[in-house]
Write a structure and sequence with these properties.
Distance between the termini of chain B: 72 Å
CATH class of the largest domain in chain B: Alpha Beta
CATH topology of the largest domain in chain B: Heat Shock Protein 90
Oligomer: heterodimer
Helix content of chain A: under 10%
Strand content of chain B: 15-25%
Largest interface: A-B, 31 and 28 residues
Radius of gyration of chain B: 35 Å
Strand order of the largest sheet of chain A: 8-1-2-11-10-9
CATH architecture of the largest domain in chain B: 2-Layer Sandwich
Structural class of chain A: mainly beta
Shape of chain A: globular
CATH superfamily of the largest domain in chain B: Histidine kinase-like ATPase, C-terminal domain
Largest sheet of chain A: 6 strands, mixed
Strand order of the largest sheet of chain B: 10-14-15-13-12-11
Structural class of chain B: alpha+beta
Strand content of chain A: over 45%
Number of helices of chain B: 27
């Protein structure tokens, strides 16, 4: 029996993503956000997390997935990063599951672009694949040039 | 470590700092017995306590210093530079030993034999055998004498101390030493104060006691208030909690406004008042006078001046100016560096100074004062000043700018280059400064806390570095505005005034100069920035609505003013500045975020960053239009409808200048005019710009009284990178008119006349007027 790890899972555009449980601070309902003009468009805004100001990153946009359908409110997965708490906006929250290290495989060739850089591995679950995210890489937006990502409201 | 040793360390560290200052002061006034007594007491206390705690080496050293001091006190020796240096060396050694005690609990291996020998040697400079001195020194009263916080509530051991009430009374002859001794004994028995006892005995009158009490407080100002030591981290924590409380209070107030429950409203009002007061008081606990940082400068200046063989006198003004602790901490090093620089590079040697006709002693001046919710600190010297040419050269050598760029830069910009990393013009590297690290660190550190640094210098007259920093970083007053449907906070420090243009006036109130919107504010042209356009929000053609009033928030950044057009101005509010995540750090338009009463987040605008984004304070607008475009515009100018600048000048009356020919409108003080080759010129953005007085050119022969008024209105005209300034009496208006040119080119300098605003107005032929005065204008490109 190999080592196992607990993963917090969430759904985006039908895919199952996950990150090790200790990286996740909390999961909260959709929050009102304050937009940040001139910010890269993956930053949806700022939320007030009990007096702390936390940036909310649209994970789907960050990974280049199709936009969430109009009217569907995202959930916040607040993760701990090297630079403090950051909220990731996802479609839906899944269960906490235990995965075995031996089911880990390197990311498939079909993953394209930025997603391939931040998916650190794939766990084979029964009937599905769990894409493990490198959270610190996801929230580091230095790859986005300031002007390119600018969005007009 | 034992509590007692900890207390000893803290107390001694403070005492040593005071010793530094006192010794330097004493050097300036060697005959002050009061200062000498203070110095003596401090050393004595240290000696006494460390003897008690068993730090023999430290005691021995302090003893040597004390012996020397006692000879000074007895008048057997007079203080000179050598003795001062010796005593300061002792202070340093004591400090080192204290550090060792703090680290290891022991007073170290070094017994400082040579220093003790030196101190003894200094002592034997006088005739009396030193043994007597030593004895008399150790016979002085024991430690308690410098305890100041407990003037009259503790038993007084010493007999006649001028620092205590009893002492003062004896000194003034109100009471005999015998009576005092008796009263002191009584005081030790009971809990009554010395003054009460004496009055009860009928030995003194109550008013004498009161007078004595005042005298004591004047001598020991610290003794008037009781203090306790509190950890700094506790204060920080307290500040954070108060910040949270202020936010909760804001939320509560918002909530109470929406309810009709009178009881609840009353309670929340009360809560509001208490929170405000609490906030003020907690802020105060963190405020420290800047003197706390400056205190170490007299000693430092003295040592540095000696080591550079310079003569420097230090003047300080505004030591009481208070600042938040964190800011004090942050500016400590920058200030130290600047002071070092002044002595090392700024102030010349006494010989050089005399040759230059200055006093041999240079003056280094530190000044601190509050202004507009900010603290200003100025460090100035009356030294040689910065060498603009050398800085230019160095900047080019280091590849920081090209030689063309350097030639075009103004002196002010050039001087401020000393803040670039790796920049030092010092010819020799001394152990003091000149390594090229430092000035950039000064700037970064000051900017980190939201401050600005500026350097001004006049050759041979001296250099002044001006630092502006906020009072506190945690809670700031701000103006809340909305733009494009979002709320923003504008820190009050950058706010100048609010201007409201009523519905329909918006179009008239904001005019375009060279494609850039401006508002005429009491005769000045104020560049205008539309916040929503700058932030790219709420765009959709709505911003041109004229049915709504236009709100302009006049702000200043980096000494330049500009107007920010916002949709709505809501309120002023105390906000708690919170940092934003790293993901948003790169956006210069915001300095942080805050949480509003309704719990939502609002962004705090960084006015300086915004100004730079909008290029209000950079110089780029002029070059935004390439020369070619300008030529095109000029050709178009023959078409009928034109935007014209109306000016008033001399006997000619009103003149019109096509706005397309106007590069900028500027205002110069009359004092900035200089003469070059018989031509009036002024320094403008690093270039020498000729000035043409339109009234003189157009009415040749007539003599005009030199315009004595303070400021010149100048229309800047540029061609092929060259600029010339046309001096007019007044800028009248900017109009859009259909031109029907009549009487073409009858008189010189005029293309013709037209009826503008129902008045006949001459059209100025700018290129011709310019060539009339400066024949070869713009035939050579700039910078050659």
């Amino acid at each position: 029996m190999g080592a196992s790890q607990q993963f917090c899972t969430f759904f985006l555009d039908g895919h199952v993503f996950g990150t090790p449980v200790p990286k996740v601070q909390e999961v909260i309902q959709h929050q009102e956000m304050t937009r940040v003009p001139l910010s890269p468009d993956v930053v949806s805004g700022l939320i007030n997390l009990r007096g702390q100001i936390v940036s909310a990153i649209d994970l789907g946009r960050r990974l280049g997935l199709p936009e969430r359908p109009e009217g569907q409110l995202p959930m916040n997965v607040v993760v701990r990063t090297n630079d403090g708490a950051v909220s990731l906006l996802v479609d839906e929250i899944g269960d906490v599951i235990e995965v075995e290290e031996e089911t880990l495989e390197s990311p498939p060739e079909t993953l394209q672009g930025f997603a391939r850089e931040v998916v650190s591995g794939v766990y084979k679950l029964s009937g599905r694949l769990l894409l493990a995210l490198d959270i610190d890489r996801v929230v580091d937006l230095s790859d986005l040039t300031k002007t390119k990502g600018t969005r007009e409201f | 470590m034992d509590e007692i040793i900890k207390d000893f360390l803290i107390e001694s560290a403070e005492n040593l700092d005071r010793l530094d200052q006192d010794l330097v002061k004493l050097e300036g006034a060697p005959s002050s017995t009061e200062l000498l007594a203070g110095v003596f007491r401090t050393i004595h206390t240290i000696k006494g306590t460390c003897g008690f705690l068993g730090f023999a080496r430290l005691e021995k050293l302090a003893h040597a210093g004390e012996s020397l001091l006692s000879r000074l006190r007895d008048g057997d020796l007079t203080l000179n530079a050598e003795i001062t240096s010796g005593l300061l060396a002792m202070v340093d050694a004591v400090r080192r030993m204290l550090a060792q005690i703090e680290a290891s609990g022991q007073d170290g291996e070094d017994d400082h034999a040579s220093l003790i020998g030196h101190l003894t040697e200094l002592q034997s400079g006088a005739a009396k055998p030193s043994g007597v001195v030593l004895e008399s020194a150790s016979a002085t009263p024991p430690a308690g004498a410098t305890k100041v916080a407990d003037v009259d509530s503790m038993p007084v051991q010493e007999q006649v101390d001028p620092g205590k009430i009893g002492g003062v009374l004896v000194e003034r002859g109100h009471v005999s030493p015998e009576d005092l001794a008796g009263a002191l004994e009584l005081q030790e028995l009971g809990r009554r104060k010395i003054g009460e006892i004496l009055v009860a005995q009928g030995a003194v009158r109550p008013e004498d006691v009161a007078a004595a009490q005042q005298a004591v407080q004047a001598r020991n100002p610290e003794s008037a208030v009781e203090t306790i030591r509190v950890g700094v981290n506790l204060l920080d924590r307290l500040m954070n909690l108060v910040g949270e409380l202020v936010l909760a209070r804001n939320q509560l107030l918002q909530f109470s406004n929406s309810t009709r429950d009178a009881g609840f409203q009353a309670v929340s009002q009360r809560m509001n008042l208490i929170a405000t007061e609490l906030q003020e008081e907690v802020m105060k606990t963190r405020m420290q006078p800047i003197g706390n940082v400056w205190n170490k400068f007299p000693r430092m200046v003295r040592d540095l001046a000696l080591s550079c063989s310079k003569d420097v006198s230090l003047e300080m003004e505004g030591q009481d100016t208070e600042l938040d602790r964190t800011i004090i901490e942050a500016i400590k090093d920058p200030l130290t560096h600047l002071v070092r620089n002044c002595i090392d590079h700024g102030i010349e040697t006494p010989e050089t100074r005399r040759q230059a006709g200055k006093e041999a002693a240079g003056v280094l001046k530190l000044r601190a004062f509050h202004e507009g919710g900010q603290v200003n600190i100025e460090i100035s010297d009356d030294g040689a000043g910065l060498n603009g040419e050398r800085i230019r050269q160095k900047a080019v050598e280091r590849g920081l700018v090209t030689s063309q760029q350097a030639a075009r830069m103004s002196d002010r910009d050039i001087f401020n280059m000393i803040f670039l990393p790796g920049f030092s013009t010092a010819e020799k590297i001394t152990n003091v400064s000149g390594r090229g690290v430092g000035m950039d660190v000064v700037k970064t550190n000051v900017e980190k806390i939201g401050g600005t640094v500026d350097v001004q210098s006049t050759a041979r007259k001296g250099t002044t570095v001006k630092i502006k920093i906020p009072l506190t970083l945690a809670i700031i007053p701000a103006l809340m505005v909305t733009s494009g449907g979002e709320r923003f906070a504008i820190p009050q420090v950058s706010l100048l005034e609010l201007v409201r243009l009523e519905a329909g006036e918006g179009n008239k109130g904001i005019e375009m100069v060279q494609g850039a919107p401006v508002h005429r504010l009491r005769g000045r042209l104020l560049p205008v920035v539309y916040l929503n356009r700058e932030l790219q929000i709420g765009l959709g053609g709505k911003d041109a609505r004229t049915d709504r009033p236009t709100n302009i928030v006049v702000v200043q950044a980096d000494g330049r003013e500009f107007g920010l057009v916002v949709d709505e101005i809501t309120d002023t509010e105390e906000i708690v500045v919170k940092p934003m995540g790293k993901q948003l750090k790169g956006i210069s338009a915001y300095s942080g975020a805050t949480i509003m009463g309704d719990g939502r987040v609002a962004l705090i605008l960084d006015i300086l960053g915004l100004a730079q984004r909008a290029r209000v304070i950079s110089e780029a607008r002029e070059s935004a239009l390439s020369d070619k475009e300008k030529v095109n515009k000029r050709e178009e100018s023959h078409s009928d409808r034109q935007t014209l600048l109306l000016v008033q000048c001399g006997a000619q009356g009103r003149m019109a200048i096509p706005l397309s020919l106007v590069a900028r409108l500027e205002e110069f003080p009359a004092t900035s005019i200089e003469m070059a080759g018989g031509q009036e010129v002024t320094q403008y953005r690093g270039q020498i710009m000729p000035l043409i007085r339109l009234s003189r050119v157009l009415d040749a022969g007539k003599e005009f009284a030199a315009t004595a008024e303070g400021r010149l209105q100048v229309v800047v005209y540029s061609e092929a990178g060259r600029s010339v300034g046309l001096v007019v009496d007044r800028i009248v208006d900017i109009v859009d008119e259909t031109l029907v040119v009549q009487n073409p080119a009858e008189r010189k300098g005029v293309t013709g006349s037209s009826v503008i605003q129902k008045r006949v107005t001459d059209l100025l032929d700018v290129p011709r007027v310019v060539r009339e005065v400066i024949p070869g204008f713009a035939e050579q490109p700039a910078g050659v």
